[in-house]
Amino acid sequence: MGHPDRVYRFSTLRRIEHGVLMVAFVVLAATGLPQKYPQSPISLALLQAMGGLETARIIHRAAAIALMLLALEHIGSVLYDLYVRRMPPSILPTREDFRNAWRALRYNLGLEGSPPRQGWFTFQEKFEYWALVWGLIIMGLTGFMLWNPITTARFLPGQWIPAAKVAHGSEALLAVLAILIWHVYHVHIRRFNRSMFTGYLSREEMEEDHPLALEAPSHPIPLDPLETRARARRFWAAYGTVAVLWLVGMVWFVSGEKTAVTTPGPIPDIARVRAYAPLTPTPVPTPSFLARATLNLGSSWEDGIGAFLEENCSFCHGPRRREGDLDLTAYEGVLKGGRSGPAVIPGAPGISPVLIWTAREDHPGRLRPSERAAIWLWIQNGAPR
Ligand code: HEC
């Protein structure tokens, strides 16, 4: 097999699988983590670069579909190798791997003179492979729940959906950190191991990391062509069935439900509907803790209201972004208002857009009841400067 001073390690198929996995993983992380950490400037930059949250979610799902197809392909090719080609299950952990992990720990602590001598796959590689398998199962299951919350709620209590969201995001973080720390260390920093791209590992590298594989090369088991063909037929019949079921399941997964936890449509679209024009005042909940709230925020613009709006709203309604053509960083700006007229109508908190918009489900800036109360009282008192 191969050149005498290098060892053939990864078939073309395995390298293609790795490439697809790598691209899908990076895409999933780049579109998923900004959804987990929406406040971070990096997330905002990434989302902006992708053309917004909606696009990011679509890309995220496309990459998830790619991974589901990859999983189907990989399971098939592994079973084919094991069953039809009678190859040894070299990636399965053995008792020796646990011993090797213990030895490696002792070696790293200086308690042992040499690292464990390992075979075709080291325990580090097996660990990573199975961590990936486990991670994909978790991500697939929780991803399904987030993609199809109504179907999920038919089988499981509703709390499972937010729980799935936490698990999905946390497992994602774990996976990214595992790649950045474990994978990057073992295949890039320790030594740049190119075998997943070239297919080959040099003899020296094999001697260092997989000496047992060189000492006892696994001789391919001689296969009886007739029996092999019979096994291949059985394999394709079984795998064909599984693959069809898998694909049907995927269609169900992806398109079964139109009601996935969706992002509210882009706000400008909603804003075009003038449902809350000043002439149709919307009742705003009357606050109950006016006195206490006033202590927190102050009772005039100078006294705290201005600073509060500056702190909470200027990110989108400041000189920089002016969403809705509204600048909330200056007293004049608040009175002048934005696209739907003055943001504050002194004496009339119930029809003041500042309170109406911050109560809307689709508006990102929200107020706590106590903050709402303080602003309510300020407007009620004539919105003093
Ligand atoms: C993350 C961004 C963001 C933050 C933070 C934010 N808003 Fe907004 N706001 C918007 C967007 C987007 C619109 C809709 C603009 C449009 O009409 O297209 C809007 C619209 C408004 C409007 C209506 C403007 C008009 O005249 O049409 C008001 C009033 C308003 N926001 C008040 C606030 C207040 C008060 C805060 C702070 C508590 C706040 N917003 C925080 C994004 C934000």
How would you explain this protein's 3D organization?
- It is a single chain.
- This protein has 385 residues and is mostly helical.
- The protein folds into two domains: 6-255, Up-down Bundle (Fumarate Reductase Cytochrome B subunit); 267-380, no CATH class.
- Helices cover 63% and strands 2% of the residues.
- The chain is built from 17 helices and two strands.
- The chain has helices at residues 12-36, 41-50, 53-84, 95-108, 123-147, 149-155, 160-189, 195-198, 203-209, 211-215, 225-255, 267-272, 290-297, 301-317, 331-336, 353-357, 369-380; strands at 6-8, 200-202.
- A two-stranded antiparallel ribbon has the order 1-2.
- Helix 5 (123-147) packs across helix 6 (149-155) and helix 5 (123-147) packs antiparallel against helix 7 (160-189).
- The longest helix is centred in the first third of the chain and has 32 residues, at 53-84.
- The radius of gyration is 30 Å and the shape is elongated.
- Heme C (HEC) is lined by residues 267-268, 271, 309, 312-313, 315-317, 323-324, 326, 328, 337-340, 343, 353-354, 357-358, 363-365, 367.
